[in-house]
Amino acid sequence: MRHRWVDNQKSKTILDHQPINMGVQIPFKKLMLLHIIFIACLRLSAAELQRFEHRLQHDGSLSFLVVGDWGRRGSYNQSLVAYQMGLIGEKLEIDFVISTGDNFYEDGLTGEDDPAFLDSFTSIYTAPSLQKQWYNVLGNHDYRGDVEAQLSPVLTKKDSRWLCSRSFILNAEIVEFVFVDTTPFVDEYFQDPGDSTYDWRGVYRRKEYLSDLLKDVNAALKNSKAKWKIVVGHHTIKSAGHHGVTKELLLRLLPILEENNVDMYVNGHDHCLEHISSNGIEFLTSGGGSKAWRGDRNWWSPEELKLYYDGQGFMSVKMTQSEAVVLFYDVHGNILHKWSIPKEPFKAA
């Protein structure tokens, strides 16, 4: 395993599990002071996103796969997509895999012992080339189950590839990834959830949670010294698919991406493979890990829409200092689309 975790939330974890002795009488002023300190510590601990490190290959390159919307115990061609991922992963000698969320259908995991984890992940992605680190974000279907189970280190003990967090940073030297928890942005899940029940533990103070998250994302991107900047989330920002544009992200997250010269926004949510090039940002949808939506497409400007494929598949990215090459594959491993993004080399001071 080639990642390192810098724990910026240790103080919060300790405080959250500190027992309170109700038999001790504390003066009111002292109690208020302790409360202020407690809140300050919580905010301080949340001021930075978790950070992970991943080394480049010996030639200074980085290769990875992206798959989303997959966890169906092998059905809806999930197993076939996984097989082709294994072949392409071996060919490209990938460093890791990114999951864009909706990791377990229909309603996430029921707990740490849910057999769906083994049935939909460990027993499906068995190719030697896929025995690398998986960096996962949560999707809206994951929020319908036990969110804490997917975040639990218990799953990592069961399968060391598994790494899932709400939002975090992955530094791979030439590129910095910022993974964003997009589900809490969507108003519909709070205002009109229908028959679905969402696990909002950790997001109770939604307004404050989103405000802090946006500040953290902006700070991470602004402070990044990496040549490339990639943001990963579950929900679409721009898409011609079934879900289309996520207006909350368009209004709140996109301006931060544009301001900080982000190169790519990578997502799932729409069950398709898609590439939209707009205002200097490549919007890449990889949501074809299992069930796809045939014929469910909306109009989009032909000048911006470079690919729309309403079937199963996945995406690969190979990066160097000077170029990123993106390829989309169907369920049979055929290349559907190739896009090269050049980058000027750093100038010596």
The averaged pLDDT comes out at 89
Structural class: alpha/beta
Shape: globular
Helix-strand topology string: EHHEEHEHEHHEEEHHEHHEEEEEEE
Please tally the β strands and state the result: 16
The end-to-end distance, rounded to whole angstroms, is 35 Å
Radius of gyration: 20 Å
- Enumerate the strands of the largest sheet in spatial order, edge to edge or round the barrel: 1-2-7-8-9-10-12-11-13
Biggest beta-sheet profile: 9 strands, mixed
Give the low-confidence spans. 1-26, 30-47
* Beta-strand percentage range: 15-25%
> Helix fraction?
25-40%
Number of helices: 10
Walk me through this protein's architecture.
- The structure is a single chain.
- The chain is an alpha/beta fold.
- The chain is 26% helix and 25% strand.
- It has ten helices and 16 strands.
- It has helices at residues 10-16, 28-45, 78-92, 116-122, 147-151, 153-158, 188-191, 206-223, 247-252, 254-259; strands spanning 3-6, 50-54, 62-67, 96-99, 133-136, 162-164, 168-171, 175-180, 228-233, 264-267, 273-278, 281-286, 305-309, 313-319, 323-330, 335-342.
- A nine-stranded mixed beta sheet has the order 1-2-7-8-9-10-12-11-13, covered by helices on one side. A seven-stranded mixed beta sheet has the order 6-5-4-3-14-15-16.
- α4 links the parallel β4 (96-99) and β5 (133-136).
- The longest helix has 18 residues, at 28-45.
- The radius of gyration is 20 Å and the shape is globular.
- The two termini are 35 Å apart.
- The model is unreliable at 1-26 and 30-47 (pLDDT under 50).
